[in-house]
Specification:
This protein is an alpha+beta fold and about 270 residues long. The chain is built from three helices and 14 strands.
Amino acid sequence: MNKTLITLALAALAASHAAHAATPSVATFEDAPLASESHFFPQVTTTFTSGAATFNHTYSDFGGGCCHVDWVYSNRTDTTTGNFTNQHSAITGGGVDGSAHYAIANFGAPTISFASAVSVQGAYFTNTTFTGRTMLDGDTLFGFSKKFGGASGDDPDYLKLTIIGRDSGGTTTGSVDFMLADYRFADNTQDYVVTDWRWVDLAALGTVSSLQFALASSDSGEFGINTPAYFALDNLTVTAVPEPEQAALLLAGLALVGAIARRRRG
C-alpha cells in the first residue's frame, strides 16, 4: 500500500512538473494598461513585465521629458512619420495578428530577464516607423541617415539585429541574427526593409536567464550607427526549464520507489 501511494504521488508530481515545464509563456503586452495612442513612459528608471519576461527601461532627466533608452511598450499606430517625433510606433501600425500592444527597444542596452531559466521558442520582430521609413526614404529632416541603396539603389546596405542568450552567470549560450533590412543582393529587386511582423526562431539560444540585443548597420560612423537604433518585438514565447533541485527531488523519489520494489521482491 505504501509503495502504491508513493508511486501515485511521484507520478502526480512528475505529471504536474512536466505540464508546467511544457506550457509556453507569451509576452503579448496586452496585459499592460495604456491609453489610446500612447506608450509606457514613467520618466523613471524601472522595469515592466509581460508573460514570464521582465524588460528594462532607463530614464535620464535632461529636462522636458527627455530622455529614455531600452524598452517601452506602445499602442501607437503611425506608419508614415519617419523622424524622431515618432519614436514609438511599429511600422506595422499595431501588434501581431491585429493586437494593439507591442514593445519598442531603443539602444541603450535593452535586456529581457527571466526569474528562472527558460527555453526561448522565438518572437516576432519588425522595424519601427522611424527606422523603417528612414531606411526607405533617408533622413528627410537633417540628412543624418542615408536612404538604403543610395541614389543608384546599388549600395550594399543592411540593418542587422543580433539576439544573444545568456545563462545565470552571464555566459553567452548562443546568438541569432535577423536582418531588419538587406540591400546586399546582386539583384536589387530582392532588396528589402522589413515592414511586417516576422517570426524568428530562437531555440538555438538554449537555456537562458536573459536576452540581450545588438544592432549593426552599414550606415555607421565615428559615433556608431547612423540608422535610428530601434526595433519592435511582440509575442516573445518561452518555456520554463526544470530547476535542478526539482529534478533532483524527482529522481530521488523515483529511486526510493525502486528501492522499495527491490526490497519487496527480495
